[in-house]
Specification:
The complex is a heterodimer of chains A (317) and B (501). Chain A is an alpha/beta fold. Chain A folds into 2 domains: 201 residues, Rossmann fold, CATH 3.40.50.620; 82 residues, no CATH class. Chain A has 8 helices and 10 strands. Chain B is an alpha+beta fold and 501 residues long. Chain B is built from 11 helices and 28 strands. Chain B has 4 domains: 238 residues, P-loop containing nucleotide triphosphate hydrolases (Rossmann fold), CATH 3.40.50.300; 80 residues, Elongation Factor Tu (Ef-tu), domain 3 (Beta Barrel); 107 residues, Translation factors (Elongation Factor Tu (Ef-tu), domain 3), CATH 2.40.30; 50 residues, no CATH class.
Chain lengths: 317, 501
């Protein structure tokens, strides 16, 4: 695949691949429609880019939506400083390859006060380094629309979220007072300071994401594929033991396991799964027989009941 | 799908740990069709949450950790089969969990080997008509739940009416809790007969009635033959697998333009999602509202330059000449054009506490086009009787017929013919909130004359005559059939002169 296309080049080297099945095609069409609608209606859109598989699909759809033009908005990566090293390397490569505008934001307060998942606990750490950081970045850019890769099948409170999810000037979500959303007619009217989070992948499921990655040959971070990696067991999760900042507790030992990740976030808070899946085919068949959901590996969802809804009300994606 | 219902019971050990799940039948899904969108409607005690929970559970859409959360949250609330309280799985918002009710539309996803499904799960209470209308707007099929012991309710008629208005043509009547009638066949036959009559009165022909027990999982995903040997029809999932998704391909080509793509001087493309019909290079098209004509030269997508596009495709269209096209315009087939004009009739559902105020100017958005509109309510549907009663304003949850008056040309198809180009939302300019969903029924002709599409008469009369006429009892009974407009005597004679030629 060539690294860049001239802007008006109409021949795409992917044209030999077989057409998408009608199910994925319908989901793709819907997502492209949302991308175009938001880009046309809002003054300053931005796309939240978390480097994970959903972000990879989101980015691919954005490129499709605006082809043969460039993606007409920047990508925003809220970095906590505790992402997997492979994620950052992947991000840098993608930005270069697709000629994208990337904005990286780290919460300066968190950095100054040395907020870490180890010292502050996952709840406070997430609040400062993700939720607060995101609000800072959105305020700084004065964005009136932010694309996110959230899916309704991920979590119960997300099942009720609109495709255009309205936010107050302080980024709050009021789940009891959402704008009705009928057909595919979206209400993009906001006042100054208010904004919308737009979710083009709302109707996708985890399996759809993987089947689409396979069908479209979308690059993803290699951590999704099984490999022998150093891990340590902590709080019932297997976490990756590669980063020198990870200090082992007295009763912990590092060991090698063949593992992979179903979701990617901050490495100290993301649990690996034992898996032999080294290809997309393997991953998809593993998923189709899986009996646990993908967010099971996320420590932050389990802090308390309704914890995602609480985070979302405060501005978390 | 043929295993008996008892095979899928969840086994638990003493600690409440889930050991085994329904036997997996995971062949690789082929998904050779688009996802089916459906809506579930029922009143509070019909077991709607249990039915959806059962669908998700038996198609393995619920995972172990979600079940564990469920178990944690539902401690002590398990039913007599040892299954978790499915309603908790569905009611995602904390307020809902606290109050034990469903407030808002929630979307659920599950799939079988043959197809995937998107369920709009909507609350049953009367005050949530607006949520049901929202869920129904995108649905291909409606499942109406009734309790076998209770039979049809006023609620059932209300739900069927709303679903029909929103354009749903396929219905499943789920006669739930049939186990509590000792699988009484006569009871089932009676309820399904009554429903068929109701459906016919609404003009719905595609109805399937199924006796089922959501709690026991009979005739939902797995068949209930062991308990109901007398029923040889399909299970609920079998009906859903065979239902049709809506298609707008039978009407003329429609492309509401979302944005103009100009990445360089040499390229200009019009981006949007085909909202009806199909298009290919060489086709002649008209740009509305300007009326300019052009020919299609290319259909551009990221993957390849295509030789055709059909309804639902997100495309970029290139035309053979420089024409003025901007967001909100519609590119349409030259030989099958939509209606354009300044006045239309529509049916709307009022969605907000302030209702719809007569004469107020709202924003109307349809496709990518947003314009100012004045809304005049004419009548309101009485959901108890199914009759339209005169109304001058519409309160929240009301379904009404309204007249729309625009400052600039509007472009629509009747909703009956096209669920995309015939649909719109109203936005209150004071709050920016979405205050109504609407469906175009017809274009209104200009002053005078009898208008063919809606058989509604517009009477333009001098003000004194108009007032006299409107005061009569005869007219009060026929208000729905005629609209009286007050004009000056001079204007009235002009109109009459024009008609006389």
């Amino acid at each position: 695949m060539p690294l860049t296309h001239p802007e008006t080049e109409l021949h795409n080297p992917q044209s030999t691949k077989p057409p998408l099945d009608p199910h994925l095609k319908a989901l793709e069409n819907e997502a492209i429609h949302i991308f175009r609608e938001v880009a046309a209606e809002f003054d300053r859109p931005v796309m939240l880019y978390s480097i994970g598989k959903d972000s990879s699909v989101l980015l691919h759809l954005a490129r499709k939506a605006f082809y043969p033009g460039r993606v007409p908005f920047p990508l925003l990566h809220v970095n906590t400083g505790w992402k997997f090293a492979e994620m950052i390397a992947f991000r840098n490569e993608i930005v270069k390859r697709y000629d994208l505008d990337l904005i990286e934001h780290v919460n300066p307060r968190g950095a100054a006060e040395n907020v870490t998942p180890f010292s502050h606990g996952s709840a406070l750490y997430t609040d400062i380094m993700k939720t607060e950081a995101l609000r800072q970045a959105l305020d700084a850019g004065q964005y009136d629309a932010a694309f996110g890769g959230a899916r309704r099948d991920e979590e119960a409170s997300r099942a009720k979220e609109r495709i255009y999810s309205f936010r107050t000037p302080d980024h709050r979500w009021d789940p009891r007072n959402q704008r009705p959303e009928l057909w595919n007619v979206y209400n993009g009217m906001v006042r100054k300071g208010e904004s919308v989070r737009a979710f083009p992948l709302s109707n996708w499921t985890e399996v759809d994401i993987w089947r689409y990655i396979q069908a479209e040959d979308i690059p993803i971070v290699p951590l999704y594929f099984a490999k022998k990696r150093p891990v340590v067991e902590r709080d019932g999760m297997m976490i990756l033991a590669e980063d020198p900042r990870l200090e082992l507790l007295p009763d912990e030992t590092k060991r090698e396991e063949v593992i992979r990740f179903r979701t990617l976030g901050c490495f100290p808070l993301t649990g690996a799964i034992r898996s032999e899946a080294t290809s997309l085919d393997d991953i998809i068949s593993e998923l189709e027989t899986a009996t646990v959901s993908e967010r099971q590996g996320r420590a932050i969802d389990r802090d308390q009941s309704g914890s995602m809804e609480k985070k979302k009300r405060e501005g978390y994606f | 799908m043929t295993a008996p219902a008892t095979a899928n019971a969840v086994q638990e050990d003493a600690a409440g740990q889930v050991l085994a799940f329904p036997a997996s039948e995971t062949a690789r899904a082929t998904r050779d069709s688009r996802p089916l969108r459906l809506i579930t409607c029922g009143s509070v005690d019909d077991g709607k949450s249990t039915l959806i929970g059962r669908l998700l559970w038996d198609t393995k859409a619920v995972k172990e950790d979600q079940a564990a959360t469920l178990r944690r949250d539902s401690s002590g609330k398990q039913n007599d089969l040892g299954l978790p309280d499915f309603a908790l799985l569905l009611d995602g918002l904390q307020a809902e969990r606290e109050q034990g009710i469903t407030i808002d539309v929630a979307y659920r996803y599950f799939s079988t080997d043959r197809r995937s499904f998107i369920v709009a799960d909507t609350p049953g209470h009367e005050q949530y008509t607006r949520n049901m209308a929202t869920g129904a707007s995108t649905a291909d099929l409606a499942i109406l739940l009734v309790d076998a012991r209770v039979g049809l309710l006023e609620q059932t008629r209300r739900h069927a009416t709303i679903a029909t208005l929103m354009g749903i043509k396929q219905f499943v009547l789920a006669v739930n809790k049939i186990d509590l009638t000792d699988y009484d066949r006569a009871r089932f036959d009676q309820i399904s007969h009554e429903f068929r009559e109701l459906a016919l009165s609404l003009g719905v022909r595609q109805v399937t009635a199924i006796p089922l027990s959501a709690l026991k999982g009979e005739n939902v995903v797995y068949d209930g033959r062991a308990s109901m040997p007398w029923y040889d029809g399909p299970t609920l999932v079998e009906v859903l697998e065979l239902a049709t998704t809506r298609s707008s391909q039978t009407v003329g080509f429609r492309l509401p333009v979302q944005r103009v793509s100009r990445p360089g001087e040499s390229f200009r493309g019009y981006q949007g999602t085909v909202a009806g019909g199909s298009v290919k290079p060489g086709d002649s098209v008209v740009i509305l509202p300007s009326g300019m004509v052009a020919n299609v030269t290319k259909i551009v997508t990221f993957d390849l330059v295509r030789n055709a596009a059909v309804a639902g495709d997100a495309i970029t269209l290139v035309l053979d000449r420089q024409v003025d096209v901007s967001r909100g315009d519609m590119i349409v087939a030259i030989d099958s054009q939509p209606l354009t004009g300044l006045a239309f009739d529509a049916q709307i559902v009022a969605l907000q506490p302030d209702g719809i105020q007569p004469g107020k100017r709202y924003w109307l958005k349809s496709g990518s086009r947003r314009q100012r509109v004045q809304v005049q309510p004419a009548s309101q549907l009485d959901l108890k009787t199914g009759k339209w009663e005169p109304a001058e304003q519409l309160a929240m949850n009301a379904i009404g017929k309204v007249h729309l008056a625009f400052d600039e040309q509007a472009i629509f198809d009747p909703y009956e013919q096209n669920r995309t180009t015939g649909a719109f939302i109203l936005i209150d300019p004071d709050t920016n909130n979405t205050v109504a969903g609407g469906m175009i029924t017809a274009k209104r002709s200009a002053l005078g004359g009898i208008h063919t599409e809606d058989a509604r008469v517009i009477l333009s009369l001098p003000a004194d005559l108009a007032d006299q006429l409107m005061a009569t009892e005869l007219f009060a009974a026929r208000r729905e059939d005629a609209e009286v407009r007050r004009v000056s005597a001079g204007r009235a004679s002009e109109i009459i002169d024009t008609i006389d030629g």
